[in-house]
UniProtKB/TrEMBL annotation:
Domain Aminoglycoside phosphotransferase: 21-204
Keyword Zinc-finger: no
Organism: Kitasatospora griseola (Streptomyces griseolosporeus)
Protein name, entry field: Aminoglycoside phosphotransferase
Keyword set, alphabetical order: Transferase
Superkingdom of source: Bacteria
InterPro entries, alphabetized: AGP_Transferase, Aminoglycoside_PTrfase, Kinase-like_dom_sf
Record GO terms (molecular function): transferase activity
Length: 250
């Protein structure tokens, strides 16, 4: 019998791998429904859906490897990063899905969440006040009107698989929906800013990508993530992770 590998697990959901099958366990039925719907609509490679019996979703494993991981070196080539950029552009150009996603929160809601989180980070001594203040200023660039696109919503580097210069699949679609395209680009390059140029080359030069907005999303996403990561057993203080991203803005 194949061993059971715990890919990721916390109080909200868990993903297990058994041989060539991934089992996602999520108590939130809406997230499972959103993931199944998004994979059916996305014009990019996604895992084969084997079966869905909430709270469990079974998916076939993808071929290829990820381009690296947050906090670690990139194992992918420039061509691989560019291919990922092209796939992201294909997604963003697709017809809009019916529901808003994580990247589609309103500016007012983001401002309220961000300001409350910044206050907690300082009050609880999680991060120094000057680090929080500086990154709150950088975040301001992301807080602007945007044109809705089909977004993944959680496009971490570990969620995109490539084989050479071909994208073989994108996983974890539970946060997908209408949202800000630059949120996806920023999430994908978080902690790997040296490959932003490769991603944008694949994404296409016909689109004017505001780098200040990308930087703003790097800061905003990191500020909102630090305390949650600590509380769920992850380490945002590890080299190359969220706190280092925040420090790079100083």
């Amino acid at each position: 019998m194949d061993e059971v590998e715990v890919v990721v697990a916390h109080s909200e959901r868990a993903t297990l791998r058994v041989g060539d099958v991934f089992l996602k366990v999520d108590a939130d039925r809406a997230r499972i429904d959103a993931e199944v719907e998004a994979m059916s609509l996305a014009p990019v490679p996604t895992p084969e859906l084997l079966w869905c019996k909430p709270p469990v979703l079974a998916l076939a494993a993808l071929s290829g490897t990820t381009l690296g991981r947050l906090g670690g070196p990139s194992t992918g080539s420039s061509a691989g990063w560019a291919a990922a950029g092209a796939a992201i552009r294909q997604l963003h150009d697709a017809p809009l899905p019916p529901r808003p996603g994580r990247a589609g929160r309103s500016v007012d809601a983001l401002v309220a969440e961000l300001d409350a989180e910044c206050e907690l980070l300082v009050t609880n001594g999680v991060l120094p006040a000057d680090l929080v203040t500086r990154n709150r200023q950088v975040s301001e660039a992301a807080l602007r009107p945007w044109t809705p696109a089909f977004t993944h919503g959680d496009l971490q580097i570990a969620h995109v698989f490539v084989d050479g210069d071909e994208v073989t699949g994108i996983i974890d679609w539970s946060e997908a929906g209408q949202g800000d395209a630059l949120y996806d680009l920023a999430t994908f390059t978080l902690g790997h800013q040296e490959h932003l140029g490769d991603v944008l080359a694949g994404y296409g030069t016909d689109v004017d990508v505001d780098l200040d907005v990308i930087h703003g999303w790097w800061s905003l996403r990191s500020l909102l993530a630090v305390r949650w990561l600590v509380e769920h057993g992850f380490d945002p203080f590890a080299p190359g992770c969220e706190v280092d991203v925040l420090r790079s803005r100083m």
